[in-house]
Automatic annotation (TrEMBL):
InterPro entries: aa-tRNA-synt_IIb, aa-tRNA-synth_II, aa-tRNA-synth_II/BPL/LPL, Anticodon-bd, Anticodon-bd_dom_sf, Pro-tRNA-ligase_IIa, Pro-tRNA_synthetase, Prolyl-tRNA_ligase_IIa_type2. It catalyses: tRNA(Pro) + L-proline + ATP = L-prolyl-tRNA(Pro) + AMP + diphosphate. Its EC number is 6.1.1.15. NCBIfam families: PRK12325.1 (NF008979). The lineage of its organism: Bacteria, Pseudomonadati, Pseudomonadota, Alphaproteobacteria, Rhodobacterales. Signal peptide: none annotated. Residues 33-341 form the Aminoacyl-transfer RNA synthetases class-II family profile domain. Keywords: Aminoacyl-tRNA synthetase, ATP-binding, Cytoplasm, Ligase, Nucleotide-binding, Protein biosynthesis. This is Proline--tRNA ligase. Homodimer. The keyword Heme does not apply. Catalyzes the attachment of proline to tRNA(Pro) in a two-step reaction: proline is first activated by ATP to form Pro-AMP and then transferred to the acceptor end of tRNA(Pro). Its main location: cytoplasm.
Length: 450
């Protein structure tokens, strides 16, 4: 992409309405614009990040054996009357009446809709286990939408639903989700800690929230400092192996880590004092096992091995995809702007041409652009005639992890400059070597998605 052709409406001033850094930086970097309270338009740069996150989620869900699909945003109230949640959900649910006077709603979550699909098409235990998921916009009429995409009213969620014959099988699905979520967040450059939580309107007793530690987080969290040393890394996992998944769950949840909703002071105080931490966190996901809470009232049964109908055991599993954009920025920025982790950056590298109009600098920039593109990388080429300082400030603000600076002086010696946004360190090397280096850096981060 060439900056002269792109739509990147960066703001010079800090928008007054933004109270936290991610909100401020998303507005300043031209990633989004508020449409109305808690509802945002995603501008091209923000949309690219959102799609990157979706693609990582898809890859990790499919790796775990879960099937992508797409359900609508609008649902009929009838299904929610069957589960008994239509009245329970209260004012957070946006209720709509169509022209025929039928009650509709904008889905805040999809347990009912997916259970309806399941009961229509699955009749035998032989078709289990089954996990279906989608990434779709949700609406919750939050009483206090705030912090930009962090607490929106309309927001993008990955929600997955497992159907199993027994509680044991459903708990394996729970564990599988926990493992796949650990991998997902790490690929996004985040440490998200599973914490025992409260299940709220979704229901059930088994539930973990995934929290990214950040001062601006809305949840108060209590944990054993040892937990922050755990890393999933690139270890192999066989998702069909119950013992392996269970071992990961135990590894990542055996130390104390709870949100304020389930905090137990006595258990917490049993941890050695120097390891006790009280902090704040951003909830970027939650997994639930709720047994037959929906399958029973909605008649989602399968024929068991003995020929008798049994209600299926279910769970649901959510990732706050749009919230993650904010969470990543909260976890990775400095006073100059965003610092995207390689796995989610909207462009892989910025090319800054210091002297647009200079034949050699133009040619070298164009060649770099073509070479990077040929290797499957996406450069953002600043081909504007702004002064160098302004170009650097924009690149720093939008946070691409790498920048190549092309100028007549370096080109005389056959070099360009490769700069890391994170460390600020620069290195002079030939354009070819710069391309090779970037190919190497990004090899583990290439995302295909669906
Ligand atoms: N049906 C279940 C799992 S699919 C469910 O709805 N879970 S949830 O309520 O925990 O939501 C899943 C994730 O969506 C949360 O962990 C959070 O990251 C994100 N989320 C929830 N509410 C909002 C909101 N108002 N704005 C942005 N993200 C939100």
């Amino acid at each position: 992409m060439r900056l002269t052709r792109y739509f990147l409406p960066v703001l010079k001033e800090n928008p007054a309405e933004a109270q936290i850094v991610s909100h401020r930086l998303m507005l300043r970097a031209g990633m989004m614009k508020q449409a109305t309270s808690g509802i945002y338009s995603w501008l091209p740069l923000g949309f690219k990040v959102l799609r990157k996150l979706e693609n990582i989620v898809h890859e990790e869900q499919m790796r775990a054996g879960h099937h992508p699909m797409l359900m609508p945003t609008l649902q009929s109230a009838d299904l929610w009357r069957e589960s008994g949640r239509y009245d329970d959900y209260g004012q957070e649910m946006l209720r709509i009446t169509d022209r025929h006077g039928r009650d509709m709603l904008y889905g805040p979550t999809n347990e009912e809709l997916i259970t309806d699909i399941f009961r229509a098409h699955v009749a035998s235990y032989k078709d289990l286990p089954l996990t279906l998921y989608h990434i779709q916009w949700k609406f919750r009429d939050e009483i206090r939408p705030r912090f930009g995409v962090m607490r929106g009213r309309e927001f993008l969620m990955k929600d997955g639903y497992n159907f199993d014959l027994t509680k044991e099988d459903a708990l394996h699905a729970y564990n599988r989700h926990l493992v796949s979520y650990l991998r997902t967040y790490e690929r996004m450059g985040l440490q998200a800690i599973p914490m025992r939580a409260d299940s709220g309107p979704i229901g059930g007793d088994d539930t973990h929230e995934f929290l990214v530690l950040a001062e601006t987080g809305e949840s108060e969290v209590f944990y054993d400092a040892e937990i922050t040393e755990l890393k999933f890394g690139d270890r192999e996992i066989d998702y069909s192996d119950c013992a392996q998944c269970q071992a990961v769950l135990e590894e990542f949840t055996s130390r104390y880590a709870r949100t304020d909703e389930t905090h137990d002071a006595a258990l917490f105080d049993a941890i050695p004092e120097d390891r006790r931490r009280v902090a704040r966190g951003i909830e970027v996901g939650q997994i639930f096992y709720f047994g037959t809470k929906y399958s029973e009232p909605m008649g989602a049964t399968v024929q068991g091995p003995d020929g008798k109908p049994v209600p299926v055991h279910m769970g649901s599993h959510g990732i706050g995809v749009s919230r993650l954009v904010g969470a990543i920025i909260e976890a990775s920025h400095d006073e100059r702007g965003i610092i995207w982790p390689e796995g989610v950056t909207p462009f892989h590298v910025g090319i800054v041409n210091l002297k647009v109009g200079d034949a050699e600098a133009d040619a070298a920039s164009e060649e770099l652009y073509a070479a990077l593109t040929a290797k499957g990388l996406e450069p953002l080429y600043d081909d504007t005639d702004e002064r160098a300082g302004g170009k650097f400030a924009t690149m720093d603000l939008i946070g691409l992890p790498w920048r190549i600076t092309v100028g007549p002086r370096g080109l005389k010696n056959g070099v360009v400059e490769l700069t890391s946004r994170r460390t600020g360190e620069s290195e002079e090397l030939s354009p070819d070597a710069a391309v090779d280096r970037l190919v190497q850096i990004y090899a583990p981060h290439m995302v295909r998605g669906l």
